[in-house]
Amino acid sequence: MRWWLLFSPNTVLPIIDRSLIPDPPNGFCLDSYLKQIFSPAAEGKKPAAGPSEAKVRGTFVITRSEIEKLRQWVLKRAENENLHLSTFVLTCSLIWVNLIKSEAAVRKPNVDATDVCRFGQVVDCRDRYEFKSIVPSAYFGNCLAYGCFALAKRTELEGEDGFVVAVRAMGNRIKKLEEEGALTEAQSWLADFFDISSTGSVFTVAGSPRLGVYGLEFGWGRPDRVEVVSIDSSSSISIAESADGEGGVEIGLVLGMPQMQAFVSIHEESKYILCRSY
Predict the structure, then answer these.
(1) Taking the CA atoms of the chain, what radius of gyration do you get in angstroms?
(2) pLDDT tens, 59-92?
(3) Are strands 144-153 and 202-207 parallel, antiparallel or unpaired?
(4) What's in the keyword line of the UniProt record (predicted)?
(5) By C-alpha distance, which of 149, 143, 147 is closest to 118?
(6) Which is it for the CA torsion 177, 183, 184, 190, positive or negative?
(7) Which end of the chain is more exposed for a tag (fewer CB within 10 A), N or C?
């Protein structure tokens, strides 16, 4: 059978054309990005590898019901604020706060009131206003913006309203991106990353609940378990839709055993406290 007979007459074939993605007005491009990565100045700012530590992998599920309870908890605490309360923001905010608390429980750093923690995410630009009219729905390829970091003081994240602080920081960063565009700070992405990765706590996220990884079919049947291997050697968490298809979210973490044990305890306690009233 000829390959084109596998498609119906109404099938829209994927478009692979990188020229559809414009450079920002300031002329930032892939060539410039690569030169920054491999420049002598960047080499001096890249964090040095520390001593190896035995790590363990954990998978945590936040159900659809729990996500809605988290949303209601934030609405009650910040009823006069117009916060961005998407499933992604609520889930990542909870994990971010619990990671910061578990980090403190294990390492007990000398906390400075000005110590700032960061949570970074990669943003899909396809629906952003500067791309929406020029990137067709059939475009096949990456259209992602890096450098969307939410910032919050460590002392505030560890406080009683740490979850609201995280939701506010992450939601406001997304709103800023929607208002100003995804590439307005592209020229400083690498410089900013090298600067922030040498101070405070920095976490990033890989994946999205919208990717539909458990709906993939390569001829072997639906996957039972999906894991992101890149988080083994980074400060990233992975996130995907829950395997049961009930609307929850699945989070993957790789931590040293002492911190993983602390995280499990803190995470379960925080979910109980935040969700028990609803």
Answers:
(1) 20
(2) 999 999 999 999 999 999 888 888 999 999 999 9
(3) unpaired
(4) Acyltransferase, Transferase
(5) 149
(6) positive
(7) N
Q: Which residues of 216-231 are buried (b: 16+ CB within 10 A; e: fewer)?
A: eeeeeeeeeebbbeeb
Q: List the one residue out of 164, 162, 175, 146 whose CA is nearest residue 84.
A: 175
Q: How many CB atoms lie within 10 A of CB 53?
A: 10
Query: Which residue is associated with the tokens 């491009």?
Result: 29
∠ CA(156), CA(160), CA(161), 5° rounding?
Answer: 65
Name the residue type at position 164. Answer: V
Place of tokens 């044990």: 261
pTM: 0.82
Helix runs in 160-206, H state only = 162-180, 189-196
> E strands of 111-235, at which residues?
116-124, 144-153, 202-207
Q: State how far Cα 197 lies from the chain centre.
A: 16
- Give dist(CA 237, CA 207) in Å, integer: 9
Query: Hey, what domains does the chain have and what are their CATH numbers?
Result: 54-107+114-276 (3.30.559.10)
Angle between helices 64-77 and 257-275 (to 10 degrees): 70
> At CB < 8 A and 24+ separation, what contacts does 206-211 make?
206/122, 206/230, 206/231, 206/236, 206/237, 206/238, 206/239, 207/238, 207/239, 207/240, 208/88, 208/124, 208/239, 208/240, 209/87, 209/88, 209/91, 209/239, 209/240, 209/241, 209/249, 210/241, 211/240, 211/241
Distance CA 19, CA 236 (A): 30
CA neighbor of 32 nearest in space, from 161, 266, 209, 190: 190
Under 8 Å between Cβ of 100 and 165: no
